[in-house]
Amino acid sequence: MSPKKPEGCAFLIGEVGSEEILTPEDFTEDQRMFAQTAKDFMDREVFPHVEDLEKGDFDKLVELLKKAGEIGLLMIDIPEKYGGLQVDKTTSMIVTEYLSKYSGWATTYGAHTGIGLWPLLFFGTHEQKEKWFPKLATAEVIAAYALTEPGSGSDALAAKTKAELTEDGEHYILNGSKMWITNAGFADLFTVFAQVEGDKFTAFLVEGDREGVSTGAEEKKMGLKGSSTRQLNLENVKIPVGNLLGEVGKGHKVAFNILNMGRFKLGVGTLGGGKRTLKVAVQYALDRVQFKQPIANFGAIRSKLAQMATQLYCLESMCYRVAGYMDQSMDHLDSAADDYPEMVMKAIEEFAVEDSIMKVVGSEVMDFVADEAVQIHGGYGFSAEYEVERIYRDSRINRIFEGTNEINRMLIPGMILKRTMKGQLNLFETIQKVEMSLAKSEAPTPPPQGDDPSLEFERFMTEEAKKLVVYCANQAIQKHMADLREQQEILMDLADMIIQLYSMDSTVGRTLKLVDTQGYDSTEVHRAATLIGLSESFQIIRNRGERLLYNLAEGDKLNAHLEAFEKLTFFPRIDVISLRRIVADAVVERENYPF
Ligand SMILES: Cc1cc2nc3c(=O)[nH]c(=O)nc-3n(C[C@H](O)[C@H](O)[C@H](O)COP(=O)(O)OP(=O)(O)OC[C@H]3O[C@@H](n4cnc5c(N)ncnc54)[C@H](O)[C@@H]3O)c2cc1C
Predict the structure, then answer these.
(1) Alpha-helical regions (H) of 8-79
(2) Which atom belonging to ligand 1 lies closest to the Cα atom of 152?
(3) CA atoms of 303 and 577, how far apart (whole Å)
(4) Residue of 402, 463, 464, 536 marked catalytic
(5) What is residue 569's three-state secondary structure?
(6) Closest by alpha carbon to 562, among 579, 546, 584, 580?
(7) What gap in Å lies between CA 173 and CA 196, rounded to an integer?
(8) CATH for the stretch 17-142
(9) How far apart are CA 111 and CA 180, in angstroms?
(10) pLDDT one-digit tens code per residue, 575-589
(11) Average pLDDT over every residue of 176-184
């Protein structure tokens, strides 16, 4: 990996393929062993019990957590000095991916080892860590994260739960209720957010066995029935001041940083779930005979399989690129320093835009894949006897929790704007490229496609897309300035453009590296998926861009914009149908995700 400290949003400014990115093909032997351990755990311990878990057998769920603890799967992120494994972020995400093949378990495991444990990891004191980490690592203590309330979801800081300091300054008294808390049915340690002195939003550790702590009945949910979700009630709960997490009034730092990391984890989790779904779908398509042949022979079905695999390939390229960046950033930190956890948090925060992108893309790819898998199953996909029925129901929540996709979409351009204003992101170079393109009288001529190990055509498309995105973003800023934050419809379209650009940049970057290391001829399927992904992303970017320009200007000004837009764009003549056939052949041959 490059020794350079990576920067967030590099895909907006750097040239595609100009910096080395981590790809799944780079995983080390150790990382592959972790993947195998997680896979074996799913196959041997989790999958045989799905039916019971779906019926709400949460004793079994707790037993599984303890078993995962026995083989070290719960101590992945815990520092060595507290008895943990403290693996790199890439390994941690590989484990998440493999453990996410069944959502009920994935949510339980994710809430415990992710949003449940991370507040302590990044904001806890030495004493708190020493007390809780060994127990969390074995699931003797199970963690949960309690932010949402009946009246405050997306607007999390409007929480009403109160924490009052006792007169002697020794305790806080907590009152309020939290809604939709994962693991609440059996959790022993909750990170609870409450207002101190009215409006000082603050995080606390609250033990589940304290007097005044109770939980409601299990929520009757559409999906994720194999995970526990309950209301958490706090009635005059007295906790020592030592249970304060971080500083009074700084709870937003805890809440948002943890959600941020949760988004990254969710993106990787949906990748695992999506791959499992593709496998289930292709195996069904090979078994199911209609018109005297397996339905996997039909082009309509094969094209779905190809599309599912392609979207997962793009998602995978995005996810592990960020994991690699995070690890590269950590390499620059002194792990023995007292402020190491804080520095790690900052290094992770650098990629907040990419995290939100992964959350949005992951949840939407997962929904797409689940929906197509049901379609491939025909009427049987509508039957609770088949796994895809559950997958379809389970998938839907991903677009809602860890910040809804609307909130995350608005955050994406918002954070980029903020970084630009603060001088953390130099968009100047890309703006200059746009201006140079506009100064020319003709639209650029694309290089020829195919038979080119330097993937010049793919790189050209990505660079053109970059110009389109930056052009439109620039026009939106010019027109609305600070008021842009209030223009939600514009922000959503801008977010779509940025998301697609990140997908293009990451996928081309990965395939380029693969062609370089494995050779042009042995990467035919990867190249096909890349071109399909590019074609679709480019269309979305052009569509959203046009829509934005029609809103941003009218009359002569609009004509000028459209003229500029035409110079910046082109119609890539990509034969998506033939490319899908290549990817579909690989999916059917492997009976699985083919990359
Ligand atoms: C199964 C499950 C498990 C969960 N686990 C946990 C957990 O462990 N811990 C926890 O704290 N929470 C948890 N949650 C809560 C979850 O994070 C929230 O449901 C989510 O943040 C959305 O909040 P809300 O449901 O109140 O929706 P709202 O915030 O009321 O949103 C409703 C709709 O309005 C939109 N909206 C809201 N504000 C805006 C705005 N400013 N601009 C535009 N659109 C907006 C949203 O995008 C959404 O479409 C869980 C929820 C579920 C269902």
Answers:
(1) 10-13, 29-41, 50-54, 58-70
(2) 26
(3) 8
(4) 402
(5) coil
(6) 546
(7) 10
(8) 1.10.540.10
(9) 12
(10) 999 999 999 999 999
(11) 98
The CA distance from 37 to 33, in Å, is 6
Q: Ligand 1: which of 148, 179, 260, 407 to mutate, judged by most atoms within 8 Å of the beta carbon?
A: 148
CA atoms within 13 A of residue 225's CA, in its CB half-sphere:
19
Segment 375-386 shows an average pLDDT of 98
- Count of CB atoms situated within 10 Å of the CB of 573: 8
Query: Does the pLDDT value for residue 249 go beyond 50?
Result: yes
Superfamily of domain 427-590, CATH level 4:
Butyryl-CoA Dehydrogenase, subunit A, domain 3 (1.20.140.10)
Position 453: which residue type? P
Collapsing DSSP to helix, strand or coil, 115 comes out as helix
Give me the mean pLDDT over the 523-543 stretch. 97
Q: Residue 90 class from Cβ within 10 Å (0-12 exposed, 13-18 middle, 19+ buried)?
A: buried
**pTM of the entire structure?**
0.96
Q: What is the DSSP string of 133-181?
A: HHHHHHTSS-EEEE--BTTBSSSGGG---EEEE-TTSSEEEEEEEEEEE
Structure tokens at 320: 């592990």
Q: Distances from the Cα of 27 to the Cαs of 1, 90, 94, 200, in angstroms?
A: 12, 8, 9, 44
Can you identify the CATH homologous superfamily of domain 251-321+351-402? Butyryl-CoA Dehydrogenase, subunit A, domain 3 (1.20.140.10)
Which residue has its alpha carbon closest to ligand 1 atom 31? 154
Q: If pLDDT is split at 50, 70 and 90, which confidence band does 37 have?
A: very high
Q: Where are the alpha helices (DSSP H) in 422-523?
A: 428-439, 456-480, 488-518
Q: From atom 27 of ligand 1, which residue's Cα is the shortest distance away?
A: 153
Q: Tokens for 230?
A: 């309950």
Q: What single-letter DSSP state applies at residue 297?
A: G
CA angle 51, 52, 58 (to 5 degrees): 135
The pocket around ligand 1, CB under 6 angstroms, is made up of: 111, 145-148, 153-154, 180-182, 221, 224, 229, 397, 400-401, 404, 406-407, 488
Q: What is the helix (H) or strand (E) element at residue 391, kind and residue range?
A: helix 387-395
554 is catalytic: no
Same CATH fold assignment for domains 251-321+351-402 and 427-590: yes
Quote the ligand 1 centre to 421 CA distance (angstroms): 29
Decide: 112 and 139 in contact? Cβ < 8 Å.
yes
What does the domain layout of the chain look like in residue ranges?
A: 17-142, 251-321+351-402, 427-590
Contact residues for 339 (Cβ-Cβ < 8 A; gap 6+): none
